[in-house]
């Protein structure tokens, strides 16, 4: 059984977060330390620690991450200029919170995909 993170508490509304969207499968909330004018995290409500634990049974929730990203990007006026979606995995990916999540970043040119 994977260990819960702070994201489970946000999903259950046990701790505050700026939640922009929630349904039966996913929750989206603003990143507490934004790296761009728009920086939203979209997470499945079920705890999946990393991409390494993804199973076929998660496909509906993980697919929903994209439809919610599209909707929130449109609401933020990002669709035409564009934006970036990122999923980090484990140490080399720079993952800090072990509850799988998609970053939605936009609102300015984001530069090259990798720093180096
Ligand atoms: P990652 O490095 O991909 O695991 O990203 C984790 C992200 O979670 C970082 O961008 C953090 O700023 C963000 N984060 C951590 N704690 C919170 C929180 N309580 N509310 C919102 N975002 C958070």
TrEMBL record:
Domain of life: Bacteria
Residue numbers annotated as active site: 101
InterPro entries (alphabetical): Histidine_triad_CS, Histidine_triad_HIT, HIT-like, HIT-like_sf
Parts forming coiled coils: none
GO MF annotation: an example: catalytic activity
Domain HIT: 6-115
Gene3D superfamilies in UniProt: HIT-like
Chain ranges for the short sequence motif Histidine triad motif as given in the UniProt record: 99-103
Entry-linked Pfam families: HIT
Protein name: Histidine triad nucleotide-binding protein
